[in-house]
Amino acid sequence: YAKTHGRNSSHFYAPAMSEYARERVHLEALLRRSIERNELLLHYQPQVDIRTGKLLGAEALVRWNSPELGIVMPVRFIPVAEDIGFISALGEWVLRTACHQVKEWDESGFVLPTISVNLSMKQLEHGDIISTVFSILEETGLSAERLEMEVTESTVMDNERVLRVLEGLRALGIQLAVDDFGTGYSSLSYLSRLPIQKLKIDRSFISNVTNDSSREAIVRAIIALANALNLQTIAEGIETESEAKFLRQEGCQQAQGYLFSRPLPPDQVLARWLDV
Ligand code: C2E
Ligand code: MG
Ligand code: MG
Ligand code: MG
Predict the structure, then answer these.
(1) Are 155 and 183 in contact (CB under 8 A)?
(2) One digit per residue, pLDDT tens: the chain, 276 residues?
(3) 182-199: burial string, b at 16+ Cβ within 10 Å, e else
(4) Atom nearest to 75 CA in ligand 1
(5) Ligand 1 atom with the shortest distance to the CA of 94
(6) Residue ranges lining ligand 1, Cβ < 6 Å
(7) Is pTM beyond 0.80 here?
(8) Could you tell me the superkingdom of the organism this chain comes from (predicted)?
(9) How far apart are CA 65 and CA 151, in angstroms?
(10) Would you list the DSSP string of the chain?
(11) ipTM higher than the 0.95 cut
């Protein structure tokens, strides 16, 4: 508009607004090229047995190293990728890279038991996620039971179509976890129908849990629910020993958080966890 109507018309727009729009278009254009320009990378955050500290797996977390923007965190670009129809390509890149990495570690003598990968709602809406996962498992030779996919609670709830896709994924032999559990609006009857093996207790309930009796009550309730449904529990975002102690006492099985390890680039995972 500004172009066709000359420079003077630009003053009709609030400057902050047009700058935001311009930045957004720029971000979108850069993001679309991030895969071909090899700018995406994965960090891996260990998941441990909360009693013994033994390494059980790791969650793959994507970062974008953009020459123009620097390191961009997923909260900033995952929603954009979802908006512009780029999330399936991005998700496929993450899955392939993570599975390859685990096989590479296998060959170097470092056996990471499981790898968790986040799945976006948008990826579940297009049903070809099942064949994508199948192909990547074939291509990398990773056995299905070593792959876990995380879907957020709000994504999976009360959606029969999503339920079918999850059943298809589960039929491949992979494991499924509900991420950010406690922040969505679970129908308990629907939850019991999901083909899942694990609940990830959201970080917002873990942070400062021992100083907040309502958080304590919620965490207890989630663990009781998981036990009743025969599901494993993992607490995300554990930062202090007192949080870990509380979760241990309450019978939570697994832990992930800065107390144990930050998300690390692959070489640092090896340095930190090989021979532990
Ligand atoms: P999430 O799946 O719930 O991942 C956990 C987030 O919590 C990660 O942030 C992790 O770095 C952070 N975290 C872990 N432990 C602690 C802790 O002790 N304290 C604090 N303060 N934070 C902790 P990150 O890597 O920035 O990722 C944010 C979100 O972006 C993820 O939340 C996930 O929803 C999304 N995401 C990341 N990678 C992918 C991906 O490959 N695909 C999709 N669809 N989403 C992704
Ligand atoms: Mg996750
Ligand atoms: Mg989470
Ligand atoms: Mg979370």
Answers:
(1) no
(2) 444 444 555 555 566 668 889 999 999 999 999 999 999 999 999 999 999 999 999 999 999 999 999 999 999 999 999 999 999 999 999 999 999 999 999 999 999 999 999 999 899 987 699 999 999 999 999 999 999 999 998 877 768 888 999 999 999 999 999 999 998 877 888 889 999 999 999 999 999 999 999 999 999 999 999 999 999 999 999 999 999 999 999 999 999 999 999 999 999 999 988 776
(3) bebebeeeebeebebebb
(4) 30
(5) 41
(6) 45, 61-62, 73-75, 78, 91, 94, 118, 120, 150, 179-180, 203, 236-239, 257-258, 263
(7) yes
(8) Bacteria
(9) 25
(10) -TTTT-GGGGGGS-HHHHHHHHHHHHHHHHHHTTTTTT-EEEEEEEEEETTT--EEEEEEEEEEEETTTEEE-HHHHHHHHHHTT-HHHHHHHHHHHHHHHHHHHHHTT---SEEEEE--HHHHHSTTHHHHHHHHHHHHT--GGGEEEEEEHHHHTT-HHHHHHHHHHHHTT-EEEEEEETSS---HHHHHHS---EEEE-HHHHTTGGG-HHHHHHHHHHHHHHHHTT-EEEEE---SHHHHHHHHHHT--EEESTTT---B-HHHHHHHHTT-
(11) yes
